[in-house]
């Protein structure tokens, strides 16, 4: 008999729902529908768990007005304030689980793809050929030439799992790596030929490509604004596959329009999805993708299985393996040590 009810607004890998067989009823959201605060409060009245992607947010109000809620799951990286109010969850004794590093390879590969697409002008050349422009016409203007990645200086902001994977991939291209992460322990960078700096301004001034892999926090909100963009080389590119609000979008639009930097590649935006009249969608020196870096078969399977197993552990009275608010365990003395990992 199914004892519990789990709501998944945006299912990632339906095949993994079978893990809940005999344990919980799974209710899924409608494709393409965003469930706001009032929607979630209404739906979660009789739910024991909710599992979200980065596109949804479980606020304090949702947490406090969902009396049956026992566990919150998020696919992918550790939830930030834009996804789950961890403080409210801890107050209520609700563990928040996630799937660390499950999508790191996918996002890292996508990041390097964007870097190469910028340097090699892949989107521009594709568009040119589709419009009947062959290489002889393009070669007339040296501004159409592409660039090599080899020998470039790549600045990496944030050296967590994804940032480190990006660094390892880029090493094989013969680049010079600069890293900025105030919280990184040097020993985790073993095997990576990267120069750390505690000066973000230095990284921005020196780098030919800057790629962002930090979490969104109060500290990193609008970390890259007008002042920072003006420090970058006019030939430099900015890549963001982390969170949109780390960059001041209005400042970036101004920088791209006025040529402070050569271009950008963005998989994330301050508002998602972006408004149709967002200037970034019109600029020809920007590559834009719809928050898709982690959307691979492999990542979705890994992260759903990891999160679903931890949700089941909590529902069945065991401690989860991957928890975003470990301090909640001081309140949840009822949760037993988990000695059996397959659910």
Number of domains: 2
CATH architecture of the largest domain: 3-Layer(aba) Sandwich
The beta-strand count equals 12
Strand order of the largest sheet: 8-7-6-9-10-11-12
Low-confidence stretches: none
Radius of gyration: 22 Å
- Briefly note the CATH topology name of the largest domain: Rossmann fold
Beta strand %: 5-15%
What is the terminal separation in angstroms? 16 Å
Task: Describe the main β-sheet briefly.
Answer: 7 strands, parallel
Based on secondary structure, the structural category is: alpha/beta
Order of helices and strands: EEHEHEHEHHHEHEEHEHEHEEH
In helices, the fraction of residues equals 25-40%
CATH superfamily of the largest domain: NAD(P)-binding Rossmann-like Domain
| CATH class category label of the largest domain | Alpha Beta
Write the layout of secondary structure elements.
Elements: E1 4-8, E2 24-28, H1 37-43, E3 49-52, H2 60-64, E4 71-74, H3 86-91, E5 96-98, H4 104-120, H5 122-130, H6 135-138, E6 153-157, H7 161-171, E7 176-180, E8 194-196, H8 200-206, E9 209-212, H9 226-231, E10 237-240, H10 249-258, E11 263-266, E12 286-288, H11 297-315
Parallel strand pairs: 1-2, 1-3, 3-4, 4-5, 6-7, 6-9, 7-8, 9-10, 10-11, 11-12
Helix pairs in contact: 4-7
Compact description:
This protein is an alpha/beta fold and 343 residues long. The protein has helices at 37-43, 60-64, 86-91, 104-120, 122-130, 135-138, 161-171, 200-206, 226-231, 249-258, 297-315; strands at 4-8, 24-28, 49-52, 71-74, 96-98, 153-157, 176-180, 194-196, 209-212, 237-240, 263-266, 286-288. It has 11 helices and 12 strands.
């Amino acid at each position: 008999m199914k004892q519990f009810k789990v709501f998944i607004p945006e299912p990632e890998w339906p095949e993994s729902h079978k893990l809940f067989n005999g344990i919980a009823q799974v209710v899924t959201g409608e494709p393409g529908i965003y469930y706001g605060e009032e929607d979630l409060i209404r739906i979660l009245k009789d739910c024991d768990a909710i599992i979200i992607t980065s596109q949804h947010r479980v606020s304090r109000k949702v947490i406090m007005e969902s009396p049956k809620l026992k566990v919150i799951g998020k696919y992918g990286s550790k939830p930030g304030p834009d996804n789950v109010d961890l403080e409210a969850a801890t107050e209520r004794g609700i563990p928040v689980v996630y799937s660390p590093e499950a999508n790191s390879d996918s996002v890292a590969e996508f990041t390097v793809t964007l870097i190469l697409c910028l340097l090699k002008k892949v989107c521009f050349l594709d568009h040119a050929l589709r419009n009947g422009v062959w290489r002889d016409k393009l070669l007339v203007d040296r501004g159409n030439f592409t660039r090599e990645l080899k020998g470039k200086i790549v600045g990496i902001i944030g050296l967590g799992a994804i940032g480190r994977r990006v660094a390892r991939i880029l090493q094989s291209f013969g680049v010079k790596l600069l890293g900025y992460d105030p919280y990184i322990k040097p020993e985790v960078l073993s095997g990576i030929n990267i120069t750390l700096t505690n000066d973000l301004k230095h990284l921005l001034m020196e780098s030919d490509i800057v790629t962002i892999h930090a979490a969104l926090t109060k500290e990193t909100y609008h970390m890259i604004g007008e002042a920072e963009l003006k420090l970058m080389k006019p030939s430099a590119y900015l890549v963001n596959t982390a969170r949109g609000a780390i960059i001041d979008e209005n400042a970036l639009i101004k920088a791209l329009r006025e040529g402070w930097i050569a271009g950008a590649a963005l998989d994330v935006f301050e508002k998602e999805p972006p408004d149709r009249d967002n200037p970034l969608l019109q600029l020809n020196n920007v590559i834009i993708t719809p928050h898709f870096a982690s959307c691979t078969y492999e990542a979705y399977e890994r992260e759903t299985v990891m999160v679903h197993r931890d949700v089941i552990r909590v529902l069945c009275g065991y401690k989860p393996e991957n928890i975003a608010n470990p301090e909640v365990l001081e309140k949840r003395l009822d949760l037993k040590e988990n000695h059996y990992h397959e659910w």
